[in-house]
C-alpha cells in the first residue's frame, strides 16, 4: 500500500504502487475450451491458481463488442442521469462506494440481477432498450460458457455426473449476478508512481466468475505465495475465477483466488463479469465423490444464503471463509 497526502480526486481511496512490466504474470494458464484436453487443463489451473484465461470460447466478437459499446455509452452520460439508475442496493448504479461496509474504489458500476439466462424482469436498470438487448445477448452467451467450464471442471475432477457443479447454476432459483465496471482514468496520479485502487482485494463468494474486459490492463491476482501479479489484458478472451463456494465444494482442492483492480492513470477500463451462484437453499459442502476414504470436510456446513449474508456483511478484504473452517 502506498501512503501519500490525499488529493481531492482520490480522497478516501487507497493507493497502490503502479504496476511495472516486471509485474506481469508470465505463467498465466491458458485453456482452449475447444480442446479435448480442456477438462484436465482447467482442473490443473484451478488447483494451482484458482484462475485461468479461456480462449476459443465460442462467444462472437460482435456480442462482446456490442455490450462494451453500450456500456461506454451509459457511463458517458451526465452524472445526474446515471445517478437516477441507482443506488446499487441491491441492484443498479453505484459510484466509488462498494457495498455498505466502507470499501471505496476508483470506479463506477452497474450491478444487475440475472434470472435464468437474461436480466431479471424485476431489474429496471438499465432502462435503455438497446443496452438491455446487448446485455441479454451477452449474458445468455457467457452463461453457456460458464456451464461448459463447470462441466469440464467436473470431468477434470473425475466426477461422473457432468452437471454436478453446473446444475447448481442452471437450476431454478439459482442466484446469478452480472456486473459492469468502469474504471475512469485517474489523471491526478499520473507520473507519481502510484495508482488508485479500482476494486480492492477480495475473493468472489459465488461458484464461478467469468470476466471479459476491454484492452486496458489493471486486473491483478495473488499467487499462493502472496505475490501480486498483473494479468495481461486480452479483449478476445475470458478470465475465469474460482469462487469461495467452489473451493468448499472441492474441499479446498480448487483455490478461491484473491484479486484486485488497479486503476490506470491514462485509459479507461471497462469489464463485464458474470457471477454464477446456486440457489439460496443449496447446501455448500464438499462433494462426496471428492472425499477420499476417511477424509473429513475442512468446512462447517452452510447454505449459499447463509454464506452470502455473511459475505455481504464483511469488508472486501476479509477472509470470508475463516468462520466456516472446522
TrEMBL record:
Cofactor: L-ascorbate; Fe cation
EC code: 1.14.11.13
Signal sequence annotation: none
Domain of life: Eukaryota
Catalytic function, reaction form: gibberellin A1 + 2-oxoglutarate + O2 = gibberellin A8 + succinate + CO2
Pfam families linked to this entry: 2OG-FeII_Oxy, DIOX_N
Major enzyme class: oxidoreductase
Family: Belongs to the iron/ascorbate-dependent oxidoreductase family. GA2OX subfamily.
PANTHER family, alphabetized: 2-OXOGLUTARATE (2OG) AND FE(II)-DEPENDENT OXYGENASE SUPERFAMILY PROTEIN-RELATED
Listed name of the protein: gibberellin 2beta-dioxygenase
Source species: Triticum aestivum (Wheat)
Lineage: Eukaryota, Viridiplantae, Streptophyta, Embryophyta, Tracheophyta
Gene name of the encoded protein: GA2ox3-3
Amino acid at each position: 500500500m502506498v501512503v501519500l497526502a490525499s488529493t481531492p480526486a482520490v480522497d478516501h481511496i487507497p493507493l497502490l504502487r503502479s504496476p511495472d512490466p516486471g509485474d506481469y504474470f508470465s505463467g498465466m494458464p491458458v485453456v482452449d475450451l475447444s480442446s479435448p484436453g480442456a477438462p484436465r487443463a482447467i482442473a490443473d489451473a484451478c488447483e494451482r491458481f484458482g484462475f485461468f484465461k479461456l480462449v476459443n470460447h465460442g462467444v462472437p466478437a460482435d456480442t462482446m463488442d456490442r455490450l462494451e459499446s453500450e456500456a461506454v455509452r451509459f457511463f458517458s452520460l451526465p452524472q445526474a442521469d446515471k445517478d437516477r439508475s441507482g443506488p446499487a442496493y441491491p441492484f443498479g448504479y453505484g459510484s466509488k462506494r462498494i457495498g455498505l461496509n466502507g470499501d471505496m474504489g476508483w470506479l463506477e458500476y452497474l450491478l444487475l440481477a440475472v434470472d435464468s439466462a437474461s436480466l431479471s424482469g424485476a431489474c429496471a436498470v438499465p432502462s435503455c432498450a438497446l443496452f438491455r438487448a446487448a446485455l441479454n445477448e451477452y449474458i445468455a452467451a457467457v452463461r453457456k460458457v460458464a456451464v461448459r467450464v463447470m462441466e469440464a471442471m467436473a470431468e477434470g475432477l473425475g466426477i461422473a455426473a457432468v452437471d454436478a457443479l453446473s446444475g447448481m447454476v442452471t437450476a431454478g432459483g439459482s442466484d446469478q449476478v452480472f456486473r459492469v465496471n468502469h474504471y475512469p482514468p485517474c489523471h491526478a496520479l499520473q507520473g507519481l508512481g502510484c495508482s488508485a485502487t479500482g476494486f480492492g482485494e477480495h475473493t468472489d463468494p459465488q461458484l464461478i466468475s467469468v470476466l471479459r474486459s476491454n484492452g486496458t490492463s489493471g486486473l491483478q491476482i495473488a499467487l499462493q505465495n502472496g505475490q501480486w501479479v498483473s494479468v495481461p489484458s486480452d479483449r478476445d478472451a475470458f478470465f475465469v475465477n474460482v469462487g469461495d463456494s467452489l473451493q468448499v465444494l472441492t474441499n479446498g482442492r480448487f483455490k478461491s483466488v484473491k484479486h484486485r483492480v488497479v486503476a490506470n492513470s491514462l485509459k479507461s477500463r471497462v469489464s463485464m463479469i458474470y457471477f454464477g451462484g446456486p440457489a439460496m437453499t443449496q447446501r455448500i459442502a464438499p462433494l462426496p465423490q471428492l472425499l477420499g476414504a476417511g477424509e473429513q470436510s475442512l468446512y462447517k456446513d452452510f447454505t449459499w444464503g447463509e454464506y452470502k449474508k455473511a459475505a455481504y456483511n464483511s469488508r472486501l478484504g476479509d477472509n470470508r471463509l475463516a468462520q466456516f473452517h472446522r
